[in-house]
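C-alpha cells for chain A. Residues wanted.
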C-alpha cells in the first residue's frame, strides 16, 4: 500500500518533535559523546521502519521502494533527529553488507540490534603500514578448527570506543595476490585479546582508535562471506560508506530543500556577514553546489545499490563542509581566534573530512577510472603474491 506524505508526517509526529528553525545540529559526531538520544530514537522508530525504510521489515525496516525512501527522508528533515554518528557504521555500512553477504543466521542475529541501536558496530580496515592501499593490510587470521586466531593491528577505527562488534578485514592467505587473500570477520570487541586505545584528535574527540588483536579468537560462524572473498565484502562496505559520507544524514544541517534557508546561511545572515560581497560570493558558491549535489542525489536515488558515483558525493561533501566551516571562521574577524563560539569544533573537524570515508585522492581516482573511463593508475603488484610484494620481491 502506498503511504502518503501526511501519513508519514503524522506517524513521525507521534515519536519526534518538530525541528526548530534555529536548531543547530552536530556534524560527524564532533564534540558529542552522548549515545542515549540516538539510541532512544532508533528504538522508537524501529517498529515503523522509519530510520531504515529500505531494510526488510523483519530486520527493522519497511521494505520501502526508492521513491518511498526519498519521501520518508524528506519528511524526516522536518523533525529533530539526534546525531546518529555513533551508530552510522552499523546502520549505513555493516548492516547493508550483512544484507548482501551475511547468512540467514547472521542477519537474524545482528541486523535487528543494529536497527534498534542496541549494539554499535565499528569497521576495522585501515592499518598503520597499509596507508590508502587497503588491500596491502597485514593483520593475519589463522584457522584452528572451527575458530580463527587474529593477530595484528588496526588504526583509525571510528566508533571502536563504543562498539560491541567490529567488521574486520584480515589476511588469510599471504601466498596469493593481495586482493585474493583476504577474508571478512565479525569480531566481538569485548573478547579477550582485543584492546582498544582511543586516539584524541585536535577537535578533542576520541572517536578514532587503534585496535590491537593479540590471539583474539573468532568462531568460523562469524566469518562474513567465503574464505578469500573479503575484498568483495569490503567493496560493498566502502561503497555504502562513500554514499553515506556524501549525505547530510546523521546530523548535518543542510536545511529543508525548498522550504527553509540552510542553518549555516541563516547564521551568516544573522551576524550580517553576508553584507560583505566576498563572503556572499563564497557562500553562494557553496550553496549552489549543495543544490546541484542534492539534485544529483535525487536522480541517483532510483538505485538501491550505491555505485562509484558515491565517490563524487563524498568529494562534494568534503568541499561543502570545509567551505562552510572555514567561511564561518573567516567571517568572524578577531572573534575567530577564540574557541568559545559556535562552529569552532566543526572548524577543527574540517581537515579530517578529506581523509575520513576515503581520501579525496582515492575518490578522484575512482571517479576517473570508473565514471570517466580514464586509464588506471599503474599497479605493478596486482598479480604478485602478497608475501613477496610486501617484501619488495617484484
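Reply:
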Amino acid at each position: 500500500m502506498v503511504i502518503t506524505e501526511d501519513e508519514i508526517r503524522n506517524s513521525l509526529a507521534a515519536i519526534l518533535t518538530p525541528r526548530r528553525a534555529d536548531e543547530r545540529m552536530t556534524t560527524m559526531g564532533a564534540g558529542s559523546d552522548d549515545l542515549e538520544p540516538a539510541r532512544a530514537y532508533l528504538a522508537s522508530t524501529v517498529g515503523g521502519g522509519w530510520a531504515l525504510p529500505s531494510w526488510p521489515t523483519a530486520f527493522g525496516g519497511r521494505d520501502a521502494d526508492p521513491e518511498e525512501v526519498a519521501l520518508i527522508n524528506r519528511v524526516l528533515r522536518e523533525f529533530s533527529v539526534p546525531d546518529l554518528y555513533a551508530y552510522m557504521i552499523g546502520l549505513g555500512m555493516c548492516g547493508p553488507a550483512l544484507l548482501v553477504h551475511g547468512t540467514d543466521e547472521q542477519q537474524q542475529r545482528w541486523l535487528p540490534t543494529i536497527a534498534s541501536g542496541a549494539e554499535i558496530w565499528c569497521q576495522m580496515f585501515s592499518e598503520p603500514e597499509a596507508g590508502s592501499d587497503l588491500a596491502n593490510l597485514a593483520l593475519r587470521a589463522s584457522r584452528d578448527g572451527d575458530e580463527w586466531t587474529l593477530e595484528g593491528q588496526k588504526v583509525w577505527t571510528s566508533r571502536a570506543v563504543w562498539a560491541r562488534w567490529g567488521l574486520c578485514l584480515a589476511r588469510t592467505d599471504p601466498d596469493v595476490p593481495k586482493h585474493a587473500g583476504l577474508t571478512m570477520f565479525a569480531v566481538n570487541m569485548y573478547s579477550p585479546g582485543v584492546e582498544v586505545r582511543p586516539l584524541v584528535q585536535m577537535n578533542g574527540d576520541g572517536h578514532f582508535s587503534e585496535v590491537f588483536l593479540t590471539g583474539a579468537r573468532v568462531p568460523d560462524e562469524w566469518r562474513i562471506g567465503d574464505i578469500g572473498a573479503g575484498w568483495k565484502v569490503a567493496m560493498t562496505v566502502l561503497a555504502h560508506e562513500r554514499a553515506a559520507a556524501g549525505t547530510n544524514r546523521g546530523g548535518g544541517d543542510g536545511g529543508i530543500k525548498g522550504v527553509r534557508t540552510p542553518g549555516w546561511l541563516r547564521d551568516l545572515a544573522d551576524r550580517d556577514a553576508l553584507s560583505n560581497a566576498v563572503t556572499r560570493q563564497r557562500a553562494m558558491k557553496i550553496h549552489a553546489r549543495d543544490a546541484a549535489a542534492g539534485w544529483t542525489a535525487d536522480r541517483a536515488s532510483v538505485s538501491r545499490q550505491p555505485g562509484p558515483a558515491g565517490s563524487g558525493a563524498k568529494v562534494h561533501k568534503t568541499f561543502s563542509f570545509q567551505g562552510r566551516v572555514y567561511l564561518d571562521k573567516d567571517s568572524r574577524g578577531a572573534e575567530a581566534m577564540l574557541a568559545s563560539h559556535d562552529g569552532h569544533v566543526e572548524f577543527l573537524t574540517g581537515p579530517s573530512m578529506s581523509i575520513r570515508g576515503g581520501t579525496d585522492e582515492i575518490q578522484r581516482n575512482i571517479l576517473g577510472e570508473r565514471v570517466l573511463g580514464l586509464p588506471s593508475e599503474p599497479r605493478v603488484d596486482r598479480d604478485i603474491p602478497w608475501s613477496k610484494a610486501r617484501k619488495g620481491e617484484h
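Residues 121-231 form a domain with the Butyryl-CoA Dehydrogenase, subunit A; domain 2 fold (CATH 2.40.110.10). The first helix runs from residue 5 to 13.
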